[in-house]
Write a structure and sequence with these properties.
Helices cover about 50% and strands about 15% of the residues. The chain is an alpha/beta fold and about 190 residues long. It has three domains: about 1-40, no CATH class; about 50-140, 3-Layer(aba) Sandwich (Rossmann fold); about 150-185. Helix 1 (about 5-10) packs across helix 2. It starts with a strand and ends with a helix.
């Protein structure tokens, strides 16, 4: 028998995440003894729900999307994870309404998310997502951490400038279209 604390340590999660798994019945055979201590038989097996998440910024990179997904699955298999789903998306890391990511974050049965780089999941707020998912019993595993904080910061800066420039250019175009429409209506 092992305690919930030992279980959490073995699975690389926090105690609270293990407790959440116990509470919703994800740990097979776990029970409370007469003193309220949560015990888990050594034979208990949890069924991890592993999802690989791949993203590229534009449709021009769609070929890289499949390669990225293949690398994620190969990594997960090498680690012994049984991949249940692979989510592939095209969209900016700054876009907060990506359907695949929202579906993934709202899926309460996911226990591990595997991504190639932090920025594939999100450009900003990664730590918030990571903490929130851990509180739900899910870990986010990043294969390639940034070589240095400077490189990571520079990439974030370039992405931010690119995103805002594109949005500003789009606003200008829509304003010009509106002006042309008004001119047409006046005639």
């Amino acid at each position: 028998m092992k305690t919930l604390k030992q279980y959490a340590s073995e699975h690389g999660i926090r105690y609270r995440a293990a407790w959440n798994r116990f509470r919703i019945g994800k740990i097979e055979g776990a029970f409370k003894d007469e003193y309220g201590k949560i015990l888990i038989p050594d034979t208990a097996v949890t069924n991890p729900y592993v999802v690989c998440y791949a993203r590229v910024s534009s449709s021009e990179n769609r070929g890289n999307l499949d390669k990225q997904a293949d690398r994620l699955v190969a990594y997960a298999n090498a680690k012994g994870y049984a991949v249940k789903d692979v989510i592939k998306e095209c969209g900016s890391g700054l876009n907060d309404s990506r359907r695949g990511l929202l579906r993934l974050l709202n899926n309460s049965v996911v226990t591990r998310i595997v991504v190639e780089h932090k920025d594939r999941l999100t450009r900003f707020g990664f730590v918030y997502l990571e903490q929130w998912m851990q509180s739900r019993g899910c870990t986010i595993e990043v294969i390639n951490e940034a070589a240095s904080d400077k490189d990571d910061l520079m990439q974030d800066f370039v992405s931010l400038v690119t995103s805002f420039t594109a949005r500003l250019y789009g606003l200008r175009l829509s304003r010009r279209k509106t002006e042309r429409l008004i001119e047409e209506l006046k005639r």
